[in-house]
Amino acid sequence: MRRLAVLALAACTHAAHAPTTPVRPEPALAVGACGDPGRDGVMSSSPRLDHADRDLDGDGRPEAIVVDRALCTSEGNCYWNVFARGGSCARYVGTFEGAALEALPSRGDEGMADVRTYWNDHGGRLHLQTYRFIRGAYRIDDVLQCMHVAGDRLECAEADR
Questions:
Q1: Is residue 8 classed as helix, strand or coil in its secondary structure?
Q2: Which residue blocks in 22-154 are alpha helix, DSSP H?
Q3: pTM of the prediction?
Q4: In which element (H, E) is residue 82 found?
Q5: Could you read off the pLDDT of 71-125 as tens digits, one per residue?
Q6: Buried b (16+ CB within 10 A) or exposed e, 44-79
Q7: Angle at 31 between CA 62 and CA 129, to 5 degrees
Q8: What's the pLDDT band for 3 if we cut at 50, 70, 90?
Q9: Domain extents in the chain
Q10: What is the pLDDT of residues 59-84, one digit of tens each?
């Protein structure tokens, strides 16, 4: 009888599955801290750096936006570390997650532009994320789930507000 119980228990267990939602790496410094855009933020131990610097505050000088390509996913999703000039240092103000960045005309605190990214999911699905600068950091303000349907056309599901 004991052997039957063990077999029954073994038949009811399921193999562990890897999570489908990626776990966001932790940044190497706190938001608001002075840092080095070439080594701080969300970075691997052997970074392959690329820049997507943009003027986010409208002062005519671009803020440093640095990505470690070694951390990008096979779908092209990356972690883009944002640094703003603050006094005598580059302040880490957050990380955008996505395959591409788009500065929007709308603005958050300190006149910083809102930024939209898209994160490629599986099967032609993606989600658009809008980041807004609030209380000294970029934070996700809105997320919209979308799907490629024909060519470059997207269908997006938006909850009623």
A1: helix
A2: none
A3: 0.79
A4: strand 78-86
A5: 999 999 999 999 998 788 999 999 999 999 999 999 999 999 999 999 988 777 8
A6: eeebeeeeeebebbeeeeebbbbbbeeeeeeeebbb
A7: 70
A8: low
A9: 26-157
A10: 999 999 999 999 999 999 999 999 99
- Chain-centre distance of CA 87, in angstroms? 26
- The span from the CA of 132 to the CA of 138, in Å, is 5
Instruction: Look at the block and give the residue holding tokens 């939602």.
Output: 21
- Binned at pLDDT 50, 70 and 90, residue 36 comes out as very high
Task: Please tell me the distance from the alpha carbon of residue 67 to that of residue 56, in angstroms, as a whole number.
Answer: 17
Whether 9 has a pLDDT exceeding 80, the answer reads no
Contact 94, 131 (CB under 8 A): yes
The partner residues of 87 in beta bridges, in order of sequence, read none
From residue 152, how far is each of 25, 93, 103, 147, 148 by CA, in Å? 30, 32, 20, 10, 7
Amino acid at 147: M
Specify the DSSP element, H or E, that contains 157. Answer: strand 153-157
Residue 147: predicted pLDDT = 84
Measured in degrees and rounded to the nearest 5, phi and psi for residue 29 equal: -150, 165
User: How long is the chain?
Assistant: 161
Torsion on CA atoms 13, 18, 24, 29, rounded to nearest 10: 80
How does DSSP classify residue 63?
B
